[in-house]
Amino acid sequence: MSEEITKAHQMAAKQKEISIAEFFSKNRHLLGFDNPKKALLTTIKEAVDNSLDACEEARILPEISVEVIDMGSSRFKVIIEDNGPGIIKSQISKIFAKLLYGSKFHRLKMSRGQQGIGISASVMYGQLTTGRPAKITSKISPKHPAHYMELQIDTKTNKPNILKEQQVEWNKDHGTRVEIDLEASYSKGSQSIDAYLKQTAIVNPHCTIIYTNPKAEQIIFPRATDVLPDEPKEIKPHPYGVELGYLINMLALTEARTLQSFLTSDFSRVSANTAKEICQKAGILPNFKPSEVNRDQAERLIKAINSVKIMNPPTDCVTPIGSDSLERGMKKEIKAEFYATTTRPPSVYRGNPFIVEAGVAYGGDQPGDKTVRLLRYANRVPLQYQQSACAITQALTQINFRGYGLSQSRNSLPVGPATIVVHLASVWVPFTSESKEAIAHYPEIIKEIKLAVQGCGRQLASYVKKKQRLHNELKKRSYIEKYIPFISTALKDLIALSPQQAEEVESDLKSLLEEKRGKLKSIAAENTEYDETFAKIGSDAEAELYADSEDGDEQ
């Protein structure tokens, strides 16, 4: 008797596996390809981030060329070329034409890329919008030939499709060149590729970027230092950040023969004594086989881990920019009269180490009647979208900036002539989405952001108050200096001074003021700790005050 074909059978016949590439080809907005303008930015960002990561890991000072060519009909050619270590032939197609393929996902170590999606998603977007393959050229040393490939992604299988492959002559010792044609639009502004590259130059002062925009205008962002950031070291997971399901998987895959050795070898900061204490509190023998631990025992292990005091994870897996380098980067790209930077001590969220850095650039040509410019970064990468959804923005709205010389409405960013820079460095940045545009609102992260910005705010308040004090002193001095001739004339008439005596009185009064001027200059000199231009405040303020007094005389 044949089996009856039910509606359930008909529905089951329609079910099939979905490739990750096929999923993202239909949901490309999740990866930052929401619209043509953002698609252009995302493509360049992913390629530049990869170049910076590769150069730093190979200990090479990065030199990156970015060229955007307008092909007409809303199509652009993006060319990114670096001087990095290059990519071996067998890996080129997988890196650029296979989603979720990379070396950074499984390791706890600070890097810009994490998921192995970015650049391959850019290749896929170009393929979907123009039908043209990505063109990749890479060379690993002067002794090896350069390899050229034209690639597309088979979205049904998430596998690379190599359309063309050959060896080529390339007058370069090592590096990688990526060409992608895509449908896009170009405009300037705070969320443009111009702004992205400028912001990248601020927090990567060791990098040189040569940018040619669609109008064939070349802009060079030179490096401000020849010192590469310290290379971050890979660490093991910290016990405090491990969840039950993850622990069960670790127990099944470990090469350790006993539970005690598993705890000491597969986690960071777990000593032999700490491992014994965890086993004792969990009620499991230290020599128990990890593969035989069941779900109930694993749950007891989690509870025991959280009840035992374990050192914070090591922080050499995270390399901050550093206050001095951040200040050099800010001075290179932001014109201001005062700069302050701070780097917080390492902290931890969910077992993941992180460091927050902040900087403030105040004054100069920055408008004083607009909201301060906020530059957000995660692992040296600018975050240009979803500002209101980011933990950095939330932290700043909770700070009282009025005490630092800036005006502010309740639950808002401050208003004033300033730029605020905030950088989060972590082995795993908790982004709110795959497009990596905003940081999740972890209380530990928000607390550290507030402390970092408040540290800069105190320096700013000191500067503003001393500047105001100097301005007030000069204002009083200018009033007295203006009326010295009248005082000497009045004294000559009142006490019958001779013309020579009156001149001496006037000279003495001017000498006293000159002595006061010297004290004011010394006050300015003392404050060059923060900014070399502080010494100019006196002369600038004097010019302003004399202009005001002349206007008053006319009135």
Could you characterize what this model shows?
The chain is α+β, with helices and mostly antiparallel strands. Helices cover 41% and strands 18% of the residues. The chain is built from 15 helices and 14 strands. It has helices at residues 7-13, 20-26, 36-57, 89-97, 118-130, 193-203, 244-253, 259-266, 272-282, 295-307, 323-333, 391-397, 443-494, 499-526, 537-554; strands spanning 63-72, 75-82, 134-139, 146-154, 159-168, 175-183, 208-212, 218-221, 338-343, 347-349, 352-362, 373-378, 381-383, 418-426. Strands 5-4-3-6-2-1-7-8 form an eight-stranded mixed sheet. Helix 12 crosses helix 13 (443-494) and helix 13 packs across helix 15 (537-554). The longest helix is centred in the C-terminal third of the chain and has 52 residues, at 443-494. Mean pLDDT is 82; it is low at 527-555.
Characterize this entry briefly.
The protein has 555 residues and is α+β, with helices and mostly antiparallel strands. The chain has helices at residues 7-13, 20-26, 36-57, 89-97, 118-130, 193-203, 244-253, 259-266, 272-282, 295-307, 323-333, 391-397, 443-494, 499-526, 537-554; strands spanning 63-72, 75-82, 134-139, 146-154, 159-168, 175-183, 208-212, 218-221, 338-343, 347-349, 352-362, 373-378, 381-383, 418-426.
